[in-house]
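Retro notes, item 3 of 5
We never archived the inputs for the 1-deoxynojirimycin complex last cycle. Fixing that now. Sequence and ligand:
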Amino acid sequence: MGRIDSLIAEMTLTEKLGQLTMTAADYAVTGPVVTPLSEDAIRSGVIGNLLNLYGAEATRRIQTIAVEQSRLHIPLLLGFDAIHGQRTVFPIPLAETSMFDPAAWEATARMAAQECAGDGLHMTFAPMLDVARDPRWGRIAEGPGEDPFVGSAVARAKIRGFQSSSLADVGAIAACAKHYVAYGAVTAGREYASTDMSEGMLREVYLPPFRAAVEAGVASIMPAFTDLNGVPLTASTFLLRDVLRGELGFDGVLVSDYHAVAELLNHGVASDLAEAAALALKAGVDIDMMSDAYRLGLPVALERDLVAMDDIDAAVRRVLTLKERLDLFQDPYRRGRADTGVTTQSRALARDVGARSLVLLKNDANALPLAARKIALIGPLADAASEMRGPWGGAGRPEDCVGVLQGLTEAGLDVRHAPGVAIETDDLSGVPAALALCADADAIILCLGEALLMSGEAASRAHLGLPGRQRQLADAVFEKAAGKPVIVVLFSGRPLAVPELVSRAGAVLAAWFPGCEAGHAIADVLTGKVSPSGRTPVSWPRAVGQIPIFFGERPSGRPFNPADHFTSHYSDVENTPLFPFGHGLTYGDFSLSNLRVEPGDLLTVKVDVVNHGVRAAEETLFLFLNQKKPGVTRPLLELKGFGKIALTPSGQGTVTFTLPPTAGRAELFVGPSADVRSLLSVPI
Ligand code: NOJ
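Structure as it came back at the time:
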């Protein structure tokens, strides 16, 4: 008998349920129920897995109790939300997605995994793969944006980064793809609300990143809190057992979301904890995070014949197998030998990806790169180093972060700073001092946007304008600017609906939340040391009423025609987004030509690119497909590829994509964004 079988043969019911239980410590607070962590519960095998504890010393101490003082010496599995970095905080995932660079996505995950491993962790609850087309939903910040092709590419890169080539590697940790599935489509963008959609939509848009995660060998998956078409994911035999385990072939560990098993009672599908536990276990959930429903409910469910011991054993086997794959039995202390703080190397990576995540939304009259040296730096986010982490800061420390004021000053600019207003209060008393700086400056930089906790979990917003009195501050600055360029650096965990701000600004840089090297990264782009290359992975609405807004819409029988009233339109706003998917300016000036397709087992699509600008820059191009199928409509554009090319002034090159041939009538489009006016096309 192998180790796992003999352990299972020896385990009491309590010890088995301990392996299916994950309890939170309090190094981070990521959910509502706080039960004090008891070392006795670990010693007696009642708890076999923990979250929200990190650090070499703390994890070793607790692991020692499990390994040396519990009857069966089974090591604990320790998980944590390292969503965009652990000690070194990288840009939020939506920002990182803006790089459209799988190697960079992988590099930050690898660094985070190494830091997690240093902190004694074995698992991160990442990557978050929820496609989101509704910026009211705060968790759009944590994910890959609006498109399934992008979400799938992120899934592959992140899982390679976290898990390395073997989970047994010292610097590797288990990834947990979440939140399976369609959480991003919550009704009206309201957190934890229900979702409802056709199976076609589910399979085409929301499922593909999870399919990619399974194909990439993801070790674990977390079902969403939410219900889909009337069945909570935590209890969905169809979606967990039939689709995920059956059809996609996932054989790893399913970890419930925080308290989600007990919340089946609130969903109204279970009448007590035993029923809730039975529903989740039967659907295939292996670990109950923070509900105590397995520990307390499964013994009762066994008595009532709602579950069988075989169901419990199968889940225990999957959990122990993961511990074995992580090499925990062999050497439970191999991770957590020493905390790693932020290092020179991790900072350099954070600065590089920080700069490449920034999206230059607008740049009129070459307001950027900055020609001026005397800068008035205004706004509540100008000197806000700790806010730069954004939601889910991992174990990142505020004192390790660099704000914009520090970054610009260190870049040698002559900076005068005043916040003007706070992010959320109504106090306008600081505005005159901010305006007073404008007279003496050659350029004005306004740092505006959301506070770090305004996006992320439980952070839905119905209004997507600037919070507090920031709009008034901006308007006063525009009045005062007297022709000087006003550059807005906009921080947010989502696209904001700010058309007036954008139209009055000379330049707008969407900074999202760039992480611990924010100030340096922003200075690099503003000064021209780095040419901006980020592209928005999500459409920016003109108005909240346009939401959900995304490029992959299916055609209307009455497409908008300004000459015909009875066509698809709003009477008070354009149909188009303020900025389409893929939009992002550079300091170069690119043109495309000669789009061509070469046949073969895979189609090869090529396009020539020239940089007519005076600066070196990187262009990003997207390949879209439009298919016509008898009997069923297809999206106007489906993303099938993205690629980048760096060109010096007057430099030219070719970007190549490959894609499988499609049956029937189809057309390919290539261009710098999903704006149809910017695309070249070729029939295939
Ligand atoms: C709840 C969140 O939905 C999930 O993403 C996270 O991993 C857990 N809390 C654990 O913190």
